Structures are given as structure tokens and as C-alpha cells.
From TrEMBL:
<dbReference type="InterPro" id="IPR016181">
    <property type="entry name" value="Acyl_CoA_acyltransferase"/>
</dbReference>
<dbReference type="InterPro" id="IPR045057">
    <property type="entry name" value="Gcn5-rel_NAT"/>
</dbReference>
<protein>
    <submittedName>
        <fullName>N-acetyltransferase</fullName>
    </submittedName>
</protein>
<feature type="domain" description="N-acetyltransferase">
    <location>
        <begin position="6"/>
        <end position="92"/>
    </location>
</feature>
<dbReference type="Pfam" id="PF14542">
    <property type="entry name" value="Acetyltransf_CG"/>
</dbReference>
<dbReference type="InterPro" id="IPR031165">
    <property type="entry name" value="GNAT_YJDJ"/>
</dbReference>
């Protein structure tokens, strides 16, 4: 089952509709022109299918395309970046 990632720039989130539920990656902007990815949620029924991975990749790709740095406040985003060092160039680490 293939789900499309959507970006709601007004609500500051990337999300996917999964049946009558939603998976999401939320973020905020900092004063340093960075996107702070702060929360990832995947419904229990859809876990283990790579959905969080897809959301995080879309969020980080959006940050890169828009010349933003990224902050991994969410543990899922931090774990993703540690497994995908190609995103280290846009990360702001504490």
C-alpha cells in the first residue's frame, strides 16, 4: 500500500492519510532559519512499514530545497539522520 506524503505549510506538518487515521511529522521554524522537527506519530496499525522514514525524508528534503537547516528534536528524526549521514550537512546539532 503506497501512501502519499502531503505538506501542510499552514499547520507546519508533513502527513499521510492511512485509512481514517493520519501519520505526521510536525515542525516549527527557529530564529536561525532552521526547521525544528519536533514530533513524529504513526498510528499503531501502520507501524513497521517505513512510514516515519518516509515522512522524515520528505521533511529533510524540504528543508534542504529551501536552504534551511534542520534540528532533530524528535528521537525518530535523530535516529533517521544517524542512519542517513547524507543529511548531516543541513543538521544543527546541540
Amino acid at each position: 500500500m503506497e501512501h502519499e506524503v502531503k505538506h501542510d505549510q499552514d499547520d507546519l506538518r508533513f502527513y499521510m492519510e492511512i485509512g481514517d487515521e493520519e501519520a505526521e511529522l510536525t515542525y516549527s521554524y527557529t530564529d536561525e532559519n532552521a526547521m525544528d522537527f519536533d514530533h513524529t506519530f504513526v498510528p499503531e496499525s501502520a507501524r513497521g512499514q517505513g512510514i516515519a522514514h518516509k515522512l522524515v525524508r520528505c521533511g529533510l528534503d524540504f528543508a534542504r530545497e529551501n536552504d534551511c537547516k534542520a534540528i532533530a528534536s524528535c528521537p525518530a528524526v535523530e535516529a533517521f539522520v544517524k542512519r542517513h549521514p547524507e543529511y548531516n550537512d543541513i543538521m544543527l546539532w546541540p
